[in-house]
Amino acid sequence: MELNITLRVSRHPARNGKAFDEFQVKLEEKMSVLDALFRVQREQDSSLGFRCSCRVGMCGTCAVYVNRIPRLACSTLVKSLESDVVTIEPLPHYPIVKDVAVSLEPFFEQWRRAKPAFRPRNPDSAELARIPKDSKYRLLTPTKRDCITCGACFAACSIVGMNDHYLGPAAINKAFLRILDPRDAAREERVKILDRSLDGVWRCHTQFNCTAACPRNIDVTDSIVRIKRALLWPGRLLKP
Ligand code: SF4
Ligand code: FES
Question: What pTM value is reported for the model?
Answer without folding.
Answer: 0.92
